[in-house]
Amino acid sequence: MKKIFFIFVFILLNFFLVNISISKENNIYKKIDLFGEVLEKINKEYVDEINQSESMDSAINGLLQSLDPYSAYMSPEIFNEMQTETSGEFGGLGIEVGMESGVVKVISPIDDTPASRAGIKAGDYIVKINDTQVQGKSLSEAVDLMRGPVGSSIELTIRRRGEKKALIFNIVRKIIEIQSVKSDLLEKNIGYIRLTSFNENSAEQIEKKIKDLEKNENISAYILDLRNNPGGLLSQAIKISDFFLDNGEIVSTKSRKLSENRKWFAKKGDLTNGKTLIILINYGSASASEIVAGALKDHKRAIILGENSYGKGSVQSIIPLKNNGAIRLTVAKYYLPSGKSISEVGVSPDIEINEENDEFRIKTETDNQLNYAIKLLNG
User: What does residue 239 show for φ and ψ, rounded to 5 degrees?
Assistant: First the structure.
């Protein structure tokens, strides 16, 4: 009797689960029908004639951007532009941008570019490009507005935290050439390495810089400057972290796909032989920068100095579509050795030092963060 009862319960449970599944599918189809109805009403009733193809693109992009700021739709034209190297015909400003609440947000200005020289800062909101309001436009549309011939000027209207009035910047577009690694010897005993992005050869360049600096017998400490570094290749972040570690986990990724769940570990061999290390970060330090800073902080291998980092701890994949366009979709999240996620939280500094004023420029006399790090290392 008990056996019959359990079989009955099992059948009943499956019946309910199947019905729930069918109900969910019916709800989705109802929503698709509703979307079609709304589109039809807009096409017939809206005061101006609309381009239905553009409306559908906006709807697709809206769906993706409702997931997170980094997922987006790329039309065939934009996807083709992304794949094709520019040949000097177009220039840029030198800023990494993202989307937040429908507004274009500066993730970080790149060193020695028109944007950084003009005074654009990480965290700035671009509200107007020339005479065009950015609110309501997709990220790719806003980026397209910022492109233009080399030598041509553009006016950006910026909203900045702590500033009551909008700021206006006139910037001349230039070809952006990025040298991702720079090094220097400070105070005769401090090795200074600045990394502005995680490119294919960044780890190779940093390894060479460290080995060159290690030839100086006076070197007692290092400063790794990751400020305004928007990130780049995960593989480079892992290699660069490994240069300062002898063992332990560096980073892990977690996804809905089990095959995407991975962990990376350091190999033996600290290139600096355990010398004191300070890492400089700010709000413009994102993604791969946060992996390096977070891993070395968790292992207590480095002192983190500056401001809280951006908080971009996710992995995006470019997925081609049948129409020759593509979607950029978040497929996994990064986790630090401590198990913490970087997403929307970032890496907090051990010693918080904020930029002193608007005249602040990295590695100049106005760089109070670097000056503090040097004084700290010299006791």
Answer: -65, -45
Is residue 289 among the annotated active site residues? Answer: no
Options 137, 209, 297, 312, the catalytic residue: 312
CATH of domain 74-172: 2.30.42.10
DSSP per-residue letters across 58-71:
HHHHHHHHTT-TT-
- In sequence order, what are the residues at sequence separation of 6 or more whose Cβ sits closer than 8 angstroms to the Cβ of residue 274? none
- Give CATH for domain 181-377: 3.90.226.10
Q: Please name the residue that has the structure tokens 């429908």.
A: 102
Secondary structure of residue 377 in the 3-state scheme: helix
| Extents of the domains making up the chain | 23-66, 74-172, 181-377
Q: Which of 298, 309, 314, 367 is catalytic?
A: 298
Burial class (CB in 10 A: 0-12, 13-18, 19+), 177: exposed
Catalytic hit among 287, 289, 309, 314: 287
Based on the residue annotation, tell me whether 211 is a catalytic residue of this protein.
Answer: no
* 312 catalytic residue (yes or no): yes
Contact 138, 126 (CB under 8 A): no
Question: Block means of pLDDT (10 residues each) for the chain, length 379 residues?
Answer: 47 50 67 82 85 82 85 84 48 83 86 89 92 83 84 93 91 83 93 92 94 92 96 92 96 88 94 97 94 97 97 88 90 93 93 88 92 93
- The residues, any chain, with a CB within 8 Å of residue 190's CB and separated by 6 or more, are 219, 220, 221, 222, 223, 374, 377, 378
- CA-derived radius of gyration, the chain: 25
